[in-house]
Amino acid sequence: MASRITTATLKAHRATWWVYVFDNDGRRTRIRKEARMRGSWPGYDVTCSCGWESRTGGATRRSVEDELWLHRYNVQTTGKP
Length: 81
Ligand SMILES: [Zn+2]
What we know:
Elements: H1 7-12, E1 15-22, E2 28-32, E3 43-48, H2 61-78
Antiparallel strand pairs: 1-2, 1-3
Bound molecules: zinc ion.
Zinc ion (ZN) binds at residues 13, 48, 50, 52, 71, 75.
């Protein structure tokens, strides 16, 4: 449950969200997701202020959210990312 992640953990592990976009040649570019960028994107990744990254290369938002939660949970419970 998300409620098990403490405020201290959240402050120490701030997430930056990224989305992937494709140009006309099919090349993938990762751009930082801004709050105003609503809607769904082809792929997501997240980087943490501690240096951890989800490194999915573009997964669904839900699965990246799960990875981020697990990362914070691991740090909080084991001290390891
Ligand atoms: Zn972190």
